[in-house]
Amino acid sequence: MTLAITGPTSGIGIETVKALAPKFDQIFLLVRNEDKARKLIPDFSPSDTATKFHVVYCDLTDLKSVSSAADFIKGQTSHVDVLINNAGGVLKNRKTTKNGFESTFSINYLGHFLLTKKLLPLLDASPLARVINVSSEAHKMAKPDFDDLQSEKSYSAFKAYTNVKLYNILFTLSLAEKYADNGIHAYALHPGMVKTSFGNDLSGIVKLGKKILELFMISAKKGAKTSIFLATSPSVVNNNGAYFKKSKVTNTSKAAESPQLRNRLWNISEELVKEY
Q1: Three-state DSSP state, 162
Q2: Which of 3, 151, 209, 242 is the most buried (most CB within 10 A)?
Q3: Global pTM?
Q4: Closest of 113, 116, 160 to residue 141, by C-alpha
Q5: Is the dihedral of CA 26, 181, 173, 103 positive or negative?
Q6: In the sheet where 248-249 sits, what is the strand order?
Q7: If 0-12 CB within 10 Å is exposed, 13-18 middle and 19+ buried, where does residue 72 land?
């Protein structure tokens, strides 16, 4: 069994890898900080570290590095059974990547879209592959503007974050719709309100709100439970395309259910990544 995961060196990513390590023969850790990942490997698994783990440089703000990461994985294994698109982030101020995309959009959504597309041949080679996209209940507050996906007209951290979490669910449904016949299943999830370093660079009322919410937040270990469940449970094969919360199927917003929105997002995304 082979696992690939983004964002494995912090928060719920660390806890997800710790729990899944005994269940997989190969694990690809897609990271920006390779040294940090290598230092964490003994914590992930006390044995078989030399052959089990592969540290792969992957910067979701640099689509060329995403493409290179996928190519590296293709050279190391014949299949991927589980891909967890776990990495995320939100920026206080609008910033563009070297590819010209708004950073929150690239980190949370577009980089994962490209990674998944590039790994489809390996996912297709698995008897029953799973793509797991970490989303959020925040998607229910999204107000997407498909004529301004890069937030050039207006930007706020809150708006950018809620929108990308909606895109993660739309992407999940598109994958389920397009590739179910290939044996590829896709799931989105809300990990819970997890207390991590995520969003620490925010300020003002948003930062104050985060501080208040932290009083009610759960640990990263608890936040990883649904990702772990989706990666391992046989029961979820009957819920292809579903959105999970506390390891149970839950409702999404009406926007997340829209075939028109998901088809439009898919087509735009394919156009945006076509040169990579």
Answers
A1: helix
A2: 3
A3: 0.91
A4: 160
A5: positive
A6: 53-57, 26-31, 2-6, 82-85, 129-134, 184-190, 243-245, 248-249
A7: middle
Place of tokens 């979701």: 60
Is 109 a catalytic site residue? Answer: no
For 38, 251, 272, the CA distances from 91, given in Å and listed in that order, are 27, 28, 21
Which residues 6+ apart lie within 8 Å of 73 measured at CB?
4, 28, 54, 56, 80, 119, 122
**Tokens 């199927």 appear where?**
249
How many Cβ atoms from other residues are within 10 Å of residue 78's Cβ? 10
Q: Does residue 216 surpass a pLDDT of 80?
A: no
Give the C-alpha distances (Å, rounded to integers) separating 254 from 162, 163, 169.
14, 14, 11
Cα–Cα distance, 158 to 262 (Å, whole number): 21
Name the 3-class secondary structure at 218.
Answer: strand
Question: What b/e sequence results for 101-130 when a residue is b if at least 16 CB atoms lie within 10 Å of its CB, and e otherwise?
Answer: bbbbbbbbbbbbbbbbbbbbebbebbeebb
- For 184-195, the pLDDT digits (tens) are 999 999 998 776
Q: Are 14 and 93 in contact (CB under 8 A)?
A: no
Contact 2, 28 (CB under 8 A): yes
Among residues 161, 167, 187, 243, the one annotated as catalytic is 161
pLDDT tens figures, 5-35: 999 999 999 999 999 999 999 999 999 999 9
- Looking at 45-193, which runs of residues are DSSP E strands? 53-57, 82-85, 129-134, 184-190
- Torsion, CA 115, CA 117, CA 264, CA 255, rounded to 10: -60
Torsion-angle region of residue 151: left (phi > 0), alpha (psi -120 to 50) or beta? left
- Cβ contacts of 150 within 8 Å, gap of 6 or more: 96, 100, 101, 102, 105
Residues 232 and 20: beta-carbon distance below 8 Å: yes
